[in-house]
Specification:
Blueprint: H1 2-6, E1 11-16, H2 26-35, H3 40-53, H4 66-75, H5 77-85, E2 89-93, E3 96-101, H6 104-120, E4 131-134, H7 136-142, H8 146-157, H9 161-177, H10 183-195, H11 202-207, H12 216-223, H13 231-241, H14 250-261, H15 268-278, H16 285-298, H17 301-310, H18 317-325, H19 334-345, H20 350-356
Antiparallel strand pairs: 1-3, 1-4, 2-3
Helix pairs in contact: 2-3, 5-6, 8-9, 9-10, 12-14, 13-14, 14-16, 15-16, 16-18, 18-20
Length: 357
Amino acid sequence: MRQAHASGYKYALLTDLTAYFDHVNHKILLGQLRSFRVSEKNLALLGDLLEHWSGGSPVGIPQGLDPSSFLGNIYLDRLDKHMVRKKYHYFRYVDDIRVFANSESELQRAMVDIIRQNRALGLHVQTGKTKIVTGEEILQLVNERNDEFSAIDYHLDFGDVDTAEGELKEILREVMAQEEFNDRHFRKCLNGLKKANSPAAVPSTLQKLDELQPWAQTTHEYLDLFTRSHFSIKRRLMEFLMDRDRNIFAWPEFWAVRTLVSAAKLPREFLDWCRSRIGDPECHWNCRGQYALVLGAHGDLSDQMLVQDLISSRENEYERRAFVASLRDLPEPGKGRVLEQLGRDYPAVVSTLALVR
């Protein structure tokens, strides 16, 4: 990108994708890999892994892992090839996209192509963060903290965790204090602190929990590391979920509930809230599945029986598998009979039953 600026291009288009990793469609991804002649056996194994990583959802891959970066690049291969065929001066790093040109009209055409290609992949650009810049502003944005994050990655790769943690904490303080929230820097900080196994960002993350909803997966995968050691995480997530004025969107709700599955003992008040949500048709099926897992892990026998009674009325197989998985702690000897009957009634959940047993 520096070479592009040095080559004299006068304009640059800057954009990125909304919650990119959260919206990678497994079916499309596997189709892309199939076009690269990946064997059906390996595709089936990867499909099982993707389902496990996403908690049964047909979309989403984890962030901060090398395989995810590789799969993310494969997913956007169609976009990359299209932009190259169109002869755009195009660059992409994960979900950050840059296009250089000598006229605004060319960049406007590029933007139309980017939107169309991403829609076909179930992705959307962040319109609020899309802009055309000129002159020195290009170089300023291209170089934005790249050297700092590269140095932090170097420290982490070579075991100098204390130095990396100190630098990440300083950047995070600046990010959280800025009037215009920089989600790219925030995600880089959380992924770095996650790699360092550092809870340094827990207080600031909980403070900004509502504002961070568009990046729910990154936020909650980080918080999940410390849910058992930091009671404040459990308390703030339960407060968020039980407040209907704050808990509006399905995706943040899904990740908040999923984080609580691995928490320490949950209060009866919240378990009763979970009971109400699994029977609520307005609650997204993906969220209902996570609430069922919470009841299975933290509830009593009456909670587990309620989940069992609702299995037959589930919206789809993904939700039904989550409900079946929640019966893992059902007491014997009844558990064996229940699972055997479920296997006969719903052949599609056989693989889940094997894990539950």
